[in-house]
Amino acid sequence: MQFSWPFMLTALGGLLVGSLLVVLGVRVLGRREAAEETASRIGVDLAAALAREPRLRDAAILPVARIPFSSRPTVEVTGRVPSPTARDLALEIARRELERLRPGMTVVDRLEIVPLAEPRRLA
Fold first, then answer.
1. Rounded distance between C-alpha atoms, residue 39 and residue 36, angstroms
2. Whether pTM exceeds 0.70
3. What is the mean pLDDT of residues 44-62?
4. 98: exposed, middle or buried (Cβ count in 10 Å: 0-12, 13-18, 19+)
5. Pairing of strands 74-81, 60-66
């Protein structure tokens, strides 16, 4: 087999392109992992802030943060609250905490209003 410059340059070009693709893939995965870690931390911090509010003790609220690459980061606030006042309070706390933790995130309201059942009276 004889030495060929075109073959050698093609092989080196292929090696260079393959290496660049691997480096790009590692960087994208690293960014995705960092975004997921940040979203998880925001969700935990927001859940702690909601749990500290005594007026929301009868509520079951779960904030889920998402930080996608192509669209605006959001936090979905899901769960059940006993009244419209509690819903408004929960959303206000979520917005206030998000402004402190990561400005620019949008709060998506997925809360249901489910009144508390009155205890039965014994006759």
1. 5
2. yes
3. 93
4. buried
5. antiparallel
